[in-house]
Amino acid sequence: MKTEQLWATPMAIHDLSGDCDLEQATTECLTVSNILRDKNNQPLKNWETPELLRIHEELIMPRIFTYLKENYGFEPTGVSVANWVFGGNNGGGLEPHIHAGSHFTAIFYPIDNNGNLVIVDPRFNAQRGYPRRILENHFAKRTLLPNAGQLVIIPSYVEHYVTGYGNGLRLSFVNDVTLTTESGNTDFD
After folding, report:
1. Around Cβ 64, how many Cβ atoms within 10 Å?
2. Are 168 and 30 within 8 A, CB to CB?
3. pLDDT tens digit sequence for 70-109
4. Which residue ranges form the domains of the chain, and what is each CATH number?
């Protein structure tokens, strides 16, 4: 009998805490987050966030490229990146969502977070009707309590959400990566 693993969904978790200034990254996240501003998804500015931009360029992007090569056998010739800081201190969580319009999502946590990151198995139709033992062993949601310095990389189509975080603070630096050709085109052969 031949057995194949169908449709694997790789998730990478890295500890960057020893490679960056977490205190400075936290300060920069607070500076540009929706906690201190009226709008979400503020663009990062070099003068405002030098440590976050360094983390993005020197730590996150090389790990995304390694993730792509190791898991997909793909070395991109071009990428487009949208990044922003999400901050929350009202105790609520984030509803289930995906990052439509991009291919991969990398989430960096500058502080320990109270709310869990819950990653949902994308094979949602296969989860119906199985005995609990099979569901728990093969279709269970993956729950992470993000630590300071942790980077999580997932395909952007994977649904995820954040549980309520009480009176605590939640900060994350999100990087959505879209694969492009050298010319910036997203149409591939």
Report:
1. 23
2. no
3. 999 999 988 999 998 888 777 778 899 999 999 999 999 9
4. 12-36+46-180 (2.60.120.620)
